[in-house]
Amino acid sequence: MTYPFTISDLRQQPAFFDAVADRIWRAWWKEQGVPADYIAGRLRENISPSPIPFALVAHRGETFIGTASVIASDLEDRPQYSPWVAAVWVEPKFRMQEIGSGLVARAAEDTFALHIRRVYLCATHERRRFYTRLGWTPVEEGVGERKLAVFVKHAGS
User: How high is the mean pLDDT of the chain?
Assistant: First the structure.
């Protein structure tokens, strides 16, 4: 599918590193008291040449629009599932424009290109419909302290 924005691997667009680190920190870690430097350090792992982890960035030219990552594990309660699409974020003014859908699809496609047959993600109950609409299948509900749903997507589905 073609979009009115570009999705790039963060390794090819390192100028967006600070924006990606900031959004991940603010969205999921700041309120828990995790230092921003810690999140930036973890994100640096996505710059390594290893296939996973990797981060994607949605942008229009030099304008940051959103991000998604693929990591080995995103839910401590479920170590048997790997890898995961994680940290999906779209800037508020760009939401409802298929950017999140594009990032999630590209993250799954890039994972399948590594000859991995399935990928997981977790989300709050409020996001359940979004992911099922994108072809993700719920495999568990009410997981962990935040009562998350775990989804799977298989290559070719």
Answer: 94
